Amino acid sequence: MEDEKSKLKEALTFETQLKHLMIDKKLKVGNKSNALKVLKKENYYRLSGYWINFVDNNDIFYQYITFEQIYSIYKFDKVLRGMIIEIINDVEVYFKTRLANYFSLAYGADGYMDDSNFKEIAKNKHRNLLKKIEDLKNNNPNNLIIKHHKTKYGAICRYGL
């Protein structure tokens, strides 16, 4: 006989998800209409990661917690992640810019294609990267960057594009 835990849960409507939270899990909801909009927009399972710490061993919400509090934590985390991603992106672009500038000044504009410019330990990774670039080029002939390079430098571009 199939183990009960291995069965997937039945799909529920948004309204039934909210009733499940309120009735079965005893979650307090101040504004049911707004909670329903949140479930429709954000997803029950996405939000569930934020309420894990607010349920007891029986999977019932603690009396002091509300849907609105959980959603506030979710929104705070969403804003915080956005700020962190923006900073990480800026740092990534900075390092890529500095590395590309250094490398092209030291080894020439197409120096990245010559594996003798890399340490032995990195040569396999380098070859794999060039293969990926070639695959991207071949699989995306309508990409604007690829089209530009083909137009400007010809079908065989010394930049690997």
Features:
161 residues, mainly alpha, disordered C terminus
> What kind of sheet is the major sheet?
none
Helical content (DSSP H or I, runs of 4+) = 55-70%
Taking all Cα atoms into account, the compactness measure Rg is 26 Å
The total count of helices amounts to 6
In what range is the share of β-strand residues?
Answer: under 5%
Structural class based on helices, strands and sheet pairing: mainly alpha
Mean pLDDT figure: 90
Spans of 5+ residues with little confidence (pLDDT < 50)?
156-161
Shape: elongated
- In sequence order, what are the helices and strands, one letter per element? HHHHHH
> How many E strands?
0
How far apart the termini lie comes to 57 Å
How would you describe this protein?
With 161 residues, the chain is mostly helical. Helix content is 61%, strand content 0%. The longest helix is centred in the middle third of the chain and has 41 residues, at 67-107. The protein starts with 13 loop residues before the first helix and ends in an 8-residue tail after the last helix.
Quick synopsis:
The chain has 161 residues and is mainly α.
Task: Annotate the secondary structure layout.
Blueprint: H1 14-24, H2 32-42, H3 44-51, H4 67-107, H5 123-139, H6 144-153
Helix pairs in contact: 1-2
